[in-house]
Design goal:
The chain is α/β, with parallel strands linked by helices. The chain folds into 3 domains: 216 residues, HUPs (Rossmann fold, 3-Layer(aba) Sandwich), CATH 3.40.50.620; 77 residues, Tyrosyl-Transfer RNA Synthetase (Orthogonal Bundle), CATH 1.10.240; 71 residues, Structural Genomics Hypothetical 15.5 Kd Protein In mrcA-pckA Intergenic Region, Chain A (Roll), CATH 3.10.290.10. 45% of the residues lie in helices and 14% in strands. The protein is built from 18 helices and 13 strands. Strands 1-6-5-2-3-4 form a 6-stranded mixed β-sheet, with helices on both faces. Strands 7-13-12-9-10 form a 5-stranded mixed β-sheet, with no helix packed on it. A two-stranded antiparallel sheet has the order 8-11. α3 links the parallel β2 and β3. It is globular.
Length: 405
């Protein structure tokens, strides 16, 4: 493998990082790789606490892809075992634990989703239950002996909870040790993570040293702010844009971000030096509205395709700018040709209950063929010609009576 020079590699992988512990050690590892012709082992762990990856995950995944493109070994760890403990990072209370079945089920789709950024043929996939699950209680005691409670309480979230007398369960102390054992087992050279993972990464570095392994370099990446413009992106906070979102939803969510995030999203979510994103940054000050539309289109193209991104933009314009129904609405053919609108909304899945359907009508959020409905007891008469039902801002249904022959 013909690697670029150490300086060229260092310049590339240092871009957009928050902290490298330490830059000198990273340079020495890159020089060793050049001298021996051996790729470095670069590790990234992801606990499958939820089944979907979102753009926040893409920040570290893209950094891993940069190492991969330089010729180094990309190792993606699916933390199915650590997910059963629950990562306390950034939490003000004990995080719910997953069962082994839930963790494995959530992890199954991670590799497929991560492959939208990583080269799957050059990615090593590991499940940390393969080694953590076989540890005996004696092994855990030996592992625990390498860290003190005082060291654990240096962690910001543990310290805050301890001072405010919030409970900290003992199993939460085991989480960083378990993640650190991933580094001991793999003997990786570098570990990537968000800034909220710094403590865990440093524990891995310390444990490697304790077990006689050259300590890993820790590289932390910025946490991506979600669509609300306030909190870090998280599905549980409802501010996430997920890899598996439909193109239309992804495009619409991208347009909902505050203008202040456009530059940050361009720098963190795109491959470095990608011309289209550089053009967006160049035009941001003069026309932020156009810049945001271009950014939304480019992000959809990254996770779907250029043609799909153009279609998502056309869909948005048709529905939200021109206030017209989209062209590709699924047709529902119903047995009943006459039924109350409230029942129809529930049957279509537009409302979870009759009470919710009633509230939607009262809030003027329901239209039939572009006619706004205000009568709660409206009865819908269906024929062979479909009617278009709009429920809320984005949901459309095409409904007709089932044909009889």
């Amino acid at each position: 493998m013909n690697f670029p020079t150490a300086k060229e590699q260092l310049d590339l992988v240092s871009a957009n990082t928050v902290e490298i512990i330490s830059p000198n050690e990273l340079e020495q590892k890159l020089l060793w790789s050049l001298k021996t012709g051996r790729p470095l082992k670069v590790k990234l762990g992801a606990d499958p606490s939820r089944p979907d990856l979102h753009l926040g995950h893409s920040v570290v995944l893209r950094k891993l892809r940069e190492f991969q493109d330089l010729g180094h070994e990309a190792i993606l760890i699916i933390g199915d075992f650590t997910a059963m403990i629950g990562d306390p990072s950034g939490k003000s209370k004990t995080r719910p634990q997953l069962s082994a079945e839930e963790a494995r089920e959530n992890g199954e789709s991670y590799f497929e989703q991560a492959s939208k950024i990583l080269d799957p043929k050059r990615t090593t996939i590991c499940y940390n239950s393969d080694w953590l699950g076989s540890m005996s209680f004696a092994d855990v005691i030996k592992l625990s002996s390498h860290y003190t409670v005082a060291r654990m309480l240096e962690r910001d979230d543990f310290e805050r909870r301890y001072r405010s007398q919030e409970p900290i369960s003992l199993h939460e102390f085991l989480y960083p040790l378990a993640q650190g054992m991933d580094s001991v087992h793999l003997k990786n050279d570098i570990e990537l993570g968000g800034t909220d993972q710094k403590f865990n990464l440093l524990v891995g570095r310390d444990l490697q040293r304790e077990y006689g392994i050259p300590p890993q370099v820790c590289i932390t990446m910025p946490l991506l702010v979600g669509t609300d413009g306030k909190e870090k992106m998280s599905k549980s906070l409802g501010n996430a844009i997920c890899f598996n979102d439909s193109p239309a939803d992804m495009y619409g969510k991208m347009l909902s971000i505050p203008d202040s995030l456009i530059e940050n999203y361009c720098r963190l979510l795109a491959p470095q030096e990608e011309p289209a994103f550089q053009d967006i940054l160049a035009g941001l000050q003069s026309d932020p509205r156009t810049a945001k539309r271009s950014l939304a289109r480019e992000i959809v193209a990254l996770y779907h395709s250029r043609a799909v991104a153009d279609g998502a933009e056309a869909h948005f314009d048709q529905v939200f700018i021109h206030k017209k129904a989209p062209d590709n609405i699924e047709l529902f053919e119903l047995e009943d040709s006459s039924l109350p609108l409230i029942d129809l909304l529930v049957n279509l899945g537009a409302a979870a209950s009759k009470g919710e359907a009633r509230r939607m009508i009262q809030q003027n959020a329901v239209q039939i063929d572009e006619r706004k409905i205000t009568e709660i007891h409206e009865v819908v008469e269906l024929g062979s010609e479909p009617k278009i039902i709009k429920a809320g801002k984005r949901r459309f249904f095409k409904v007709a009576a089932k044909k009889t022959f």
